[in-house]
Amino acid sequence: MFPTGVQIYSVRDHAERDFFSTLEKLKNMGYDGVEFAGLYGYKPKEVKEYCEKLNLVPVSAHVSIDDMLVCPDEVFAAYQIIGCEYIAIPYLTEDRRPGGANYENTFIQIASLGEKAKLHGLTLLYHNHDFEFCKTGSDNKYFLDVLYETVSPAFLQTELDTCWVNVGGENPAEYLIKYTGRSPVVHIKDFVKKSKDSKSGLYELIGITPAERQAEEDDFAFRPLGYGVQDIPSIIAAAKTAGSKWLIVEQDRTCLGLDSLECMKLSAQYLKKVNI
Q: How far, in Å, CA of 184 to CA of 160, rounded?
């Protein structure tokens, strides 16, 4: 059975009101760990102590590449204090993607950050969306594959988001197996969409919201695990084959009239049935 955690941004509304109470509720649902998206005003030592009190593992954290570059030692030291093993780049802005002004430099910066993270006892991860599944270069490879070919595994591991792998046109289980030995943390996420190429309502995680959006009628919508189109059992089996260590549940926004914690509870209940 895999240890499971929650990306705290999934329950950000509760975490903003009472961070520690939210951690406790997630632990009571049966989750083993958490992945941070900010510390909500608390000091690293306070977060470490509360996680220890709950016996909740501080698995990893999402921190923007720009924040890491501004003060890498400070960022890495903070999450080292908390006890995280991993730190992840959650997103790349358009200037850092193929054709962007900072594209080539980004690879160099990621390698440098991965090397520095290692000095602090952390492993740098990259968390994908679907835009990384664009073909680039003369060899017509996915941007995501080019990233992992360019930056050494010694300095960068994967945090494959299985929802976005699917939306990007690849089979999540097969793609996980492709990165066997390089996929310690897996984002496990479910969704529905009305048509094959629908893109409405996609990017909530980092605050990018379409100018016009219907709250519950988007072509694309997130779901608790087991309530969407993902083949979760095959993804879990692939994670085992790939040598993954953690499954991190993420649901970028709520659905079906459910509260964010209710969504996490449904996902926890489903995982108890299939995570064997």
A: 9
Q: Please, are residues 85 and 122 in contact by the beta-carbon 8 Å criterion? A: yes
| Residue 222 near residue 193, CB atoms below 8 Å | no
Q: Quickly list DSSP for 79-146.
A: HHHHT-SEEEE----GGGSTTSTTHHHHHHHHHHHHHHHHHTT-EEEEE--SGGGSEETTTTEEHHHH
Q: What are phi and psi of 126, to 5 degrees?
A: -120, 125
Identify the residue whose tokens are 């903070």. 78
Between CA 237 and CA 239 the distance in angstroms is: 5
* pLDDT tens-place string over residues 229-258: 999 999 999 999 999 999 999 999 999 999
Domain boundaries, the chain: 4-189+223-274
The token pair that represents 108 in the structure block: 């160099």
Is the pTM higher than 0.90? The answer reads yes
Q: Please tell me whether residue 155 adopts helix, strand or coil conformation.
A: coil
Assigned token pair, 136: 């680039």
d(CA 5, CA 104): 33
CATH architecture of 4-189+223-274: Alpha-Beta Barrel (3.20)
Please count the residues of the chain.
Answer: 276
